[in-house]
Specification:
Layout lengths: L2 E5 L3 H12 L3 E5 L3 H10 L16 E3 L2 H5 L4 E4 L6 H8 L8 E4 L12 H9 L6 E5 L4 H5 L4 E6 L3 H10 L5 E6 L2 H23 L4 H21 L10 H12 L4 H10 L4 H7 L5 H15 L5 H11 L4 H9 L11
Parallel strand pairs: 1-2, 1-4, 2-3, 4-5, 5-6, 7-8
Antiparallel strand pairs: 6-7
Pathway: Membrane lipid metabolism; glycerophospholipid metabolism
Keywords: Cytoplasm, Lipid biosynthesis, Lipid metabolism, NAD, NADP, Nucleotide-binding, Oxidoreductase, Phospholipid biosynthesis, Phospholipid metabolism
GO molecular function: glycerol-3-phosphate dehydrogenase [NAD(P)+] activity; NAD binding
Length: 335
């Protein structure tokens, strides 16, 4: 039997562990909070993140990383992106030599500006063919409720992507393979930043024209950055690009969209952070995405104003003026 260890008992980590278990993969969840681990392991529920939903009886949970990693073929990482480096360093010694490391995280590391797969390769000291990423329009609660969804599993080694595809394919969750790890990761990370912008606009009471403009021009920003970093531009028209962008920018289940809405309504950053129970990755990653763009001379005006609103005291109204007063340009440039 294929075995998997999933690190992170948040909504997406728990949901993906459920998918693996339902697909016949022997799956163990690792969590740092004993009460959550006990609820999953003994009562087959995660009351903090997926209340009222029954988890598979075959799904195990433990607070011991060595126990979780024992014999694992896939090591699935679903922790907040900015904590990955420290956590993975602590777990590295127990990772089986044959295991594929799988990132569910959608962020860019602050300081290094590295994608999550790059951090994994550096910290775990593994080659790129042992690192895979999963990204797409995957709102955890809908999938945990067995609503149909699709995703992309990406690895530079297509055979590894196909193995992971088989391990997480169930009737309500359809994974597609891709070898463009760069594009799949960038789509997942940058769409969180664009969702913040769309949320701010919605919170200000602005209409569908503005939201559609932000999403479309946001996709242009993602594509420009991806082109410079060697991504396949077709990836951004797929599930990990436009698909994920639509879901995250439009759904009330989206943490980043909701975070932005609260900012647009006039709440301070501290107030929104206090009201947010789960990590909105775009809040921190917007700075590292902008820094990454700066390193490669890529123009990302929406990302720039999001950083201004979230971190530098720019008001949403001022951000709107800055975007609308930019010099005229052709629709397609910088690619």
């Amino acid at each position: 039997m294929t075995k998997a260890a999933v690190f992170g008992t948040g909504s997406w980590g728990t949901t993906f562990a459920t998918i693996l278990a339902e697909a016949g993969t022997g799956t163990t969840l690792w969590g740092r909070r004993p009460e959550v681990v006990e609820a999953i392991d003994r009562r087959h529920e995660n009351p903090d993140y997926l209340p009222g939903l029954a988890l598979p009886s075959s799904l195990r949970a433990t607070a011991d990383p060595e126990e979780a990693l024992d014999g694992a073929d896939f090591v699935v990482l679903a922790v907040p992106s900015q904590s990955l480096r420290a956590n993975l360093a602590a777990w590295r010694a127990h990772i089986p030599a044959h295991a594929v490391l799988v990132s569910l995280m959608k962020g860019v590391e602050i300081g290094s500006c590295k994608r999550m797969s790059e951090v994994i390769r550096e910290v775990a000291e593994v080659p790129e063919e042992r690192v895979a990423v999963v990204s797409g329009p995957n709102l955890a609660l809908e999938i945990a409720q067995r609503q149909p969804a699709a995703t992309v599993v990406a690895c530079t080694d297509e055979s590894v992507a196909e193995r992971l595809q088989e391990a997480c394919h169930v009737p309500w969750f359809r994974p597609y393979t891709n070898t463009d790890v760069v594009g799949v990761e960038l789509g997942g990370a940058v769409k969180n930043v664009i969702a913040l912008a769309v949320g701010v606009a919605a919170g200000m009471g602005l209409g569908d024209n503005v939201r559609a403009t932000l999403m479309t021009r946001g996709l242009a920003e993602i594509t420009r950055l991806g082109a410079v970093l060697g991504a396949d531009q077709h990836t951004f028209a797929g599930l990990a690009g436009m698909g994920d962008l639509i879901a995250t920018c439009t759904s009330p289940l989206s943490r980043n969209r909701t975070f932005g809405e609260n900012l647009g309504r006039g709440m301070t950053l501290a107030e929104v952070v206090a009201a947010t129970k789960q990590t909105a990755e775009g809040v921190k990653s917007c700075e590292s995405v902008l820094a990454l763009a700066g390193k490669h001379d890529v123009e990302m005006p929406i990302t720039e104003v999001v950083v201004g609103v979230v971190h530098d005291g720019l008001t949403p109204a001022e951000a709107g003026v800055l975007l609308m007063s930019r010099t005229p340009k052709p629709e397609r440039y910088g690619v």
